[in-house]
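Human: Note token order:
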Amino acid sequence: MTKELSVRTGHAQRANVRGLMEPPPISGPSRILVLGASGAGKSTLSRAIGSRVGLPVVHLDALYWTPGWVASDAASFRAKVATAAAGDAWVMDGNYSSSLDLRLPRAEVVIWLDLPRRIYFPRAVWWTLRGYGRPRADVGEGNPERFDWSFFRNWVWTYPSRRPGQAKLMAQLPPGLHGITLRSPADVRKFVAGLPQSLVVGASDCGNTLDKLSALSR
């Protein structure tokens, strides 16, 4: 009897130690917007969040472009965005400021990839060249990767002229809507490593949390 009690006590003590070492379960947000320049990694980050947290991913480019790189008309695009935003759970990437009025009221977290142009512009060019002629899941079926120099010159390169609008948006998010700004590839890596905690506390705070948990486990 004494031996059995000792075994049970040992199991309980080990369980308590594991409980101190393991992070508590987090009931995180289920509707997340990802914004930023082309080449900043919006789709990549969205897929990482979806995979880690178990949320469906919605690429706005895939809703906007129809086969043959034909743009949706404004009414049909807004209808598709409204349907997607009405879902209970999603990670949605893409800027499309004309549809923010449909997405922001439903979102629980907004992530802004505020990377410098020296990072996102070469990335955008490289990713396009690497995937040239191949299908892309984030722009829908029937739209193989293409190289459109006017897109890089008139849209990707000129993103800094639109950046103040996104900075203002992040600074004026409605109460209850959590904003997270990631300004470097290192920020993004730390954020992904800290999922799902980083969706609640942010990348830098999550890094501190992970350091504490790692110290406890030693």
The first helix runs from residue 2 to 21. The chain has one domain: 27-217. The chain has eleven helices and seven strands.
